[in-house]
Design a protein that fits this description.
The chain is α/β, with parallel strands linked by helices. Helix content is 35%, strand content 22%. It has a 7-stranded mixed β-sheet with strand order 3-2-1-4-5-7-6. The chain is globular.
Amino acid sequence: MIDEKPYSQACENNKPYILDVLINEFKDVKKVLEIGSGTGQHAVHFAANLPHITWQTADQLEYHQGIYLWLQEYELSNLLPPIPLSIPNDPWPKQSYDAIFTANTAHIMQKIQVQFMMQKVSEALPTNGVFCQYGPFTIDGEFSSESNAEFHGKLLASGRGGYRDIEELKAWVDNIQLEKIIEMPANNLMLVWRK
């Protein structure tokens, strides 16, 4: 049981830049599933600034209490409490969503988990559905900075899956296309996929 809201400085740093992208990419969207809501900071910020969207948080059960604390403070009517989503163990949500968002998940997950996530997103999105995927990635096997290469090494040493290559992600989906690669601060990217 936790009493204080979890806090990520990285979330605070990147949320305005991510929002700038989502304002455009999610302008015609009504329901969003967030994979890996983490602390809940992104969810409250995006739901508050995108009032036309119903934002569904989702993550492993161990993160739910922290997400609840953020949701309770903000009391946003368009922000839904977290559903269990441990990939690939939990069933994929039955509710339909016209957009999916995830931030900083692919390099934490194991390769098989990322592959499963990409396939499920590809299957679940409706025609014209959009998937915004934020984080660090490699392009044709190349890191965008020395610090990214070092971080990748640390992730692998700690048992994480490490950076995924964009070509690898593309090979794991059947019916969504990578529409845009948007450069973001701190050597991150926003991948915009559309069905």
